[in-house]
Amino acid sequence: MFERLKEDINAVFHRDPAARNFFEVLTNYPGMHAIWWHRLSHYLYVKDFKWLARTVSNLARLLTGVEIHPGAVIGRRFFIDHGMGIVIGETAVIGDDVTIYHGVTLGGTSWNEGKRHPTVGNGVVIGAGAKILGPFKVCDNAKIGSNSVVVKEVPEGATVVGIPGRIIANDKDEKREAIARKLGFDAYGVNANSPDPVAKAIGNLLDHVHLMDGKVAELCSEVKRMGGNVCDERLPDLFVDSPDFVEAELDAAQKRMRAHEQFDPGI
Questions:
Q1: Total domain count for the chain?
Q2: In this structure, what are the phi and psi dihedrals at residue 62, rounded to the nearest 5 degrees?
Q3: Which of 10, 21, 82, 116 gives 102 a disulfide partner, CB atoms 3.0 to 4.6 angstroms apart?
Q4: What's the whole-model pTM score?
Q5: 82-99: average pLDDT
């Protein structure tokens, strides 16, 4: 019990720069108090003291402003910042190292018995006012933006914003950016949600290049395994290290600047 208490307090120090000392955290953090009350109510709930568990849960809501159903399962180092207005449903499951801000709802969309509430993976951050509704999973290390309404599964590492929630960044975008850097240009803003058809085409091209790189590497490995002598030479560096390419880009930039000056001499 004391180990979990120490973990909870350390989690506050790690994630809230306003925390000053042990005594302040112990006495003035209602989000942490709500978690401790929940552990008691959950223990009673599991032992089939359902009425007493709900009574403890309601008392905790009165004292902290956080409503956690005693049936919810919560992992280690869970951090509730501010806390007021949070609602966590009966069949919700929360992993380790999760952070939730005020006004968040982990709710259901059905009156049927059984799994009705979301499962939140490890390391997830849920912004203030977000609503996650339904029996799906928010995978590890995802981020839910403030006031978002999420009604379908969130992939690992993704960032979701908006109503309804849409993914604005994920591992696929990171791979695109890595390939773009390799090719020598900035892919900032190139993602599947961009309305620009050119950006969409570039994104598809980056996906294609990434896939082809992987297939060529597999092919070379298989040919080598069969005794072939291929793929020993290092591939030449792409545009970013080419002097001719850099010189051509500088010339093009100077031409654009001269044209702009002719159009607007006052710049």
A1: 2
A2: -65, -40
A3: 82
A4: 0.60
A5: 90
